[in-house]
Specification:
- The protein has about 850 residues and is an alpha+beta fold.
- An 8-stranded mixed sheet has the order 6-5-10-3-2-14-17-16, covered by helices on one side. Strands 21, 22, 23, 24, 25, 26 and 27 form a 7-stranded mixed sheet that branches. It has a 6-stranded antiparallel sheet with strand order 1-4-9-8-35-7.
- The protein starts with 16 loop residues before the first strand and ends with a strand.
Length: about 850
């Protein structure tokens, strides 16, 4: 299964719909109108503790029946659902978290007996389902879902995407029974009649903006901690696009800012002590007092046969992009590897402009390929001579990690940790099904980071994602930082590793700090006894850069504090769910559990007196069972949803039996063509309720709504289900990024862009019908007249945004300066039938008029996707 939670460029899902399925093949569909949605909550640093409150109601004239509803939340994979409450009129039902099989049985019994009940289950990392039995006419139903979401690092700050509607998603024929197929809207309207409101409070942040909605931003207090209230300037809006918020962490002028958010509770073993959960945010200074530290970068690029196509193209682009950003004083080495390893120059040498140009040309000229001897290339890189002086030393692997010799590769990382001038090992793993164990473990042992990018064109553009990931390796102002805590036995989230610390302390490896944005660390300190807990950001040479000291008894215990605990718990739950399905050996499982802070021997071998199982089938079965029990235990401990538990609540009072089921419309996302609705979309009905274990009814065809600008009483138009679609096979290239003969191109803009309010629309496929429907965009090209020269001093803030379908968030973002310099930008973006394609020039700083940019021509290149 494509597990989107592991991928940097997986597309965010929608917020929920109330989905009610007709009983019987001829049953008519009616609305349960969603009157209003409101998102409220708190944002502290990068952490958002949110509650989505949605009010449903219907009149007896519309439907004189008691109904059952399915309410579905496609949430980002890092969202942790903490609680679900339902108000049936004046009666509130709070759910209880139980093992999933017990929760499903309790719900089924209540439904059969005609009692109102609620069941909430998580089908996958980003799919959450709520079943509500007993909706009645003239009785408002309010569903409150509380969850925690971690904002995503973007540019110099944080970004939170709040999905407001669910767009139709293409489902392959071989995925129709998979959990991720259960996320489809049943009915779509231009204006479904319901509205969305926002009311959030921010703490420890500054410069809150939105590219999608006009905001009302108010300071609520002058004293510390400063709180900022954010609402929509219009009060309520049509939920036809995602709401995207940007903000920056509060920063000091010349030194890093260390902000600590905590949550304390009595320790289970001793109520005189406390367990302390913390979230540490480390923000770079606005203008560092010291000069940037030189970089020493060794880039290893996978040119094996499995990297053919978009992965190969994106990896080469990433090298070009990274090397072009190196500064005077930086050094680099470059190699491509497959069966053999080839070096541009087998030395870490200065990054002069000429050397960078020659290195990029050398890499792009290499089209030979073969196997994947990753370990051989890594060993050669780590054995290169180390230059004297302070620098941030990194090895950057761009690969799909499709190898099997993990043990020897990890030994290389273990040996590198002992070196005085240590090189950190980072891996950009590009594939829809990578060797995730090797990538994660190599980064942990190597003191670097692992990033996963999918080459699936239905997800976010891989090259855009690479641009953002490479910002993590921008000019570092500090290298080899540590977060030092005066408490023992601390545990960090799985993204960080522990450094060697003296007795009575916990040191967490932070790595480098660049000007690109803040970092965060989630952790847990068991049985805290000291009156004060200190957190110090230090260099490896013991120089303290920032210190925060807090009284443990004053740890935050409100909504924000609970969110800190939930974040730590959610990361552990995600890690356990990954272990259950990763197919590790016993030795690998034991090592992974130990790194998460568990007693691996007790978990994997609880019945040691009986001896270990002999046959591998029994070994795997026992491991799966014990990990599943641990997942249930940890889910209940942190009171969070997982695939192993469920929220359930049942009323004791007798009610009315369920007699009907109906549907609620979603807003058609802005930018989607009316032709999508009028022509039946791009597929047959989604699997519907067939994946819900507690319901036995067959799936019914979807009734689609005619595209309309009017309210939600527009007439229904039934559409016969179309045959299941599957993509036609592409003709793969033997090696390299793929032959140009498969591609077509078209001019989409010519001229000098006339900007208004910092933006100019250069292309809109609804008005300029020059693109086929079912295509994969492969590249964007720029050309100048023969008499013009490319501008050399164009500000990097001037960008091109490429939207496909969703106009709230671009599928690709690129610097116009970079595009002029390279003249072509690779893309890997799927365009479905009816999805608008739009290209917009953005000038947020208002410098376009001062830039001497001549008229230019833009071309799009694509291949037919085979739909």
């Amino acid at each position: 299964m494509f597990y989107t939670a592991h991928y940097e460029n997986s597309r965010a899902g929608g917020v929920g719909i109330l989905e009610i399925v007709a009983e019987g093949p001829q049953a008519p569909r009616r609305f349960v109108p969603l009157q209003r949605s409101e998102l409220c909550g708190e944002v502290i640093g990068p952490l958002a503790a949110l509650t989505l409150r949605q009010t449903f109601a219907y009149r007896r004239e519309e439907l004189a029946a008691t109904v059952e509803a399915c309410y579905r939340f496609p949430l980002p994979g890092d969202a942790a659902v903490m609680a679900v409450r339902v108000h049936f009129g004046d009666v509130e039902i709070a759910t209880e978290l139980k093992a999933r099989d017990l929760a499903e049985a309790a719900y089924a019994q209540a439904k059969q007996e005609g009692r109102q009940a609620v069941l909430a289950t998580r089908e996958a990392a980003d799919v959450f389902t709520l079943q509500v039995s007993g909706l009645q006419p003239e009785q408002p139903v309010v569903v409150e879902t509380s969850y925690v979401q971690l904002a995503h690092a973007e540019s110099s700050g944080w970004s939170l995407r709040i999905p407001l509607t669910t767009a139709p998603r293409y489902v392959r024929a071989d995925e129709r029974q998979a959990p991720q197929a259960n996320g489809q809207p049943l009915v779509l309207l231009r204006d479904p009649g319901h509205r969305f409101a926002l009311d959030l409070h921010f703490q420890g942040v500054e410069q809150i903006t939105s590219p999608t909605h006009e905001l009302l931003v108010t300071d609520t207090a002058q004293a510390e901690p400063k709180r900022i209230r954010v609402q929509l300037a219009q009060g309520e809006v049509i939920p036809d696009r995602d709401c995207v918020l940007h903000w920056r962490a509060r920063r000091q002028a010349a030194a890093p800012t260390l902000t600590i958010f905590t949550y304390a509770e009595p320790a289970a073993s001793d109520d005189r002590r406390q367990d302390l959960y913390f979230l540490a945010q480390i923000a770079p200074p606005r203008q560092p007092a010291q000069a940037a530290i030189p970089r020493e970068a060794i880039l290893l690029v996978d040119h094996s046969g499995s990297m053919q196509g978009a992965k190969w193209t994106a990896a080469d682009w990433a090298v070009d992009r990274f090397l072009s950003d190196l500064k005077e004083g930086d050094r680099f080495a470059l190699a491509s590897f497959h069966t053999e390893t080839a070096w541009f120059v087998q030395d870490v040498a200065p990054a002069t402009a000429d050397r960078v140009t020659e290195a990029v040309a050398w890499l792009q000229g290499r089209r030979d390929s073969g196997g994947t001897n990753l370990g051989v290339a890594l060993e050669q890189a780590l054995r290169l001579p180390r230059k004297p002086g302070a620098s941030a030393r990194h090895v950057l692997l761009l690969t799909d990690a499709a190898v099997s010799d993990e043990a020897r590769i990890l030994r290389l990382a273990d040996a590198e940790r002992t070196q005085a001038a240590r090189r950190r090992i980072n891996i950009l793993c590009i594939d829809a099904a990578p060797n995730a164990f090797l990538a994660l473990e190599l980064a942990k042992r190597g003191g670097g980071v692992a990033k996963f990018l999918t080459s699936d064109p239905a997800e976010e553009d891989i090259t855009t994602a690479l641009d953002e990931v490479l910002a993590d390796w921008a000019e570092p102002f500090y290298a080899d930082l540590q977060l030092r805590i005066n408490q023992p036995h601390g545990i960090a989230s799985e993204q960080q590793t522990l450094a060697a610390a003296p007795t009575g302390a916990t040191w967490i490896d932070v790595g480098a700090l660049t000007g690109g944005g803040a970092q965060w660390i989630a952790g847990y300190l068991p049985q805290v006894t000291d009156e004060q807990v200190s957190f110090t950001l230090s260099t490896a040479a013991n120089a303290a850069l920032a210190t925060t000291t807090l009284d443990r008894v004053q740890a935050e215990k409100g909504t924000a504090g609970a969110a800190v605990k939930a974040l730590f718990g959610a990361r552990r739950i995600m890690a356990l769910e990954y272990l259950i399905n990763a197919g590790f050996t016993q030795e690998q499982l034991a090592e992974q559990l130990a790194r998460l802070g568990y007693q691996a021997e007790e978990i994997l071998h609880p019945n040691a007196d009986n001896g270990a199982a002999l046959y591998p089938e029994n070994v795997r079965s026992e491991s799966q069972r014990m990990l599943q029990e641990l997942l249930v235990q940890e889910s209940l401990r942190y009171h969070l949803a997982s695939t192993a538990v469920a929220f359930v609540a049942t009323r004791q009072e007798a009610g009315e039996p369920v007699t009907a089921q109906v549907a609620v419309a979603n807003a058609l996302p802005v930018g989607w063509s009316d032709q999508f609705l009028l022509h039946g979309g791009y597929g047959s009905a989604p699997p519907g309720m067939t994946a819900l274990r507690s319901m036995s009814m067959p799936a019914q065809p979807v009734a689609r709504m005619r595209a309309a600008e009017g309210p939600s009483d527009a007439p229904l138009r039934a559409v016969s289900p179309a045959p299941a679609l599957s993509p036609a096979p592409m003709s793969p290239a033997s090696f390299g990024p793929g032959p140009a003969s498969q591609e077509e191109e078209r001019v989409i803009f010519t001229g000098k862009a006339p900007l208004s309010d910092g933006r100019a629309e250069l292309f809109n496929s609804d008005r300029q019908a020059v693109l086929p429907d079912a295509i994969i965009l492969r590249a964007l090209q720029i050309e100048l007249p023969d008499t013009a020269s490319f501008p050399t001093e164009l500000p990097p803030s001037i960008t091109l945004a490429l939207f496909v379908g969703d106009l709230a968030s671009p599928r690709a973002r690129l610097s116009l300066r970079d595009l002029f310099r390279r003249q072509e930008r690779p893309l890997n973006i799927e365009r479905k039938a009816g999805a608008m394609v739009q290209v917009v020039l953005l000038d947020p700083d208002g410098v376009w008029g001062k830039s001497a940019v001549p008229p230019f021509t833009l071309k799009l290149r694509w291949v037919v996707s085979g739909e």
